[in-house]
Amino acid sequence: MAGKTSIIFLHGASSSGKSTLARMVQDRIERPFWHISIDHLRDSGVLPLARVKAGDFKWREMRAPFFAGYHASLAAYAAAGNNLIVEHILDTPGWQGDLAELFRPFDVLFVALHCPVEELNRRELARGDRPVGSAEQDALTIHEGRAYDLELQTGDGVEENAERVMAAWRGARVGSRFFEVSEGK
């Protein structure tokens, strides 16, 4: 999609392989893309997580403004001309609709990453940094009622999936299914 800022939006459960896929696409695609994830903010120390864990702040009070800012920042990065690979879990009603409004000026490729629940559970336990059961909960709910430009299975392998993402990005699309927002999404 030469000429228009692109957003490759990877949507999948926690531990489904979004980060691994994003890094491989970023390493291979012919244009520069930023790889952006909530995990980058969490792991960099942007959030006062130690104070949240200590009880000084409540995450449930911080969550809505945090995600509103995160979503606005994605649109700002793209508006400045930066191509993005975004990994996200659209687990809150209204987020896709909000993002659809912010992303209207951009070329969006909406990608679902599916992973068997047994594998998600195995990965989640191996990681040790996620609440047990969150990946399974995501897998059972986040794809419901959504239409994608591309759907991938982790069992096909990261190299094959990266090639499919890049081929879909290079291909001609008339709009993205990202903008087909179901009620409450």
TrEMBL record:
Positions binding ATP in this chain are G12, A13, S14, S15, S16, G17, K18, S19
User: Keywords for this entry?
Assistant: Transferase
Recorded hits in InterPro entries, A to Z, give: CPT, P-loop_NTPase
Q: Does the keyword Transferase apply?
A: yes
The entry's active site is: D39
| Keyword Transferase appears in the UniProt entry | yes
Q: Name one GO molecular function term.
A: ATP binding
Q: Which domain of life is it from?
A: Bacteria
What Gene3D superfamilies does the record point to?
A: P-loop containing nucleotide triphosphate hydrolases
Q: What is this protein called?
A: Chloramphenicol phosphotransferase
Q: Which organism is it from?
A: Devosia riboflavina
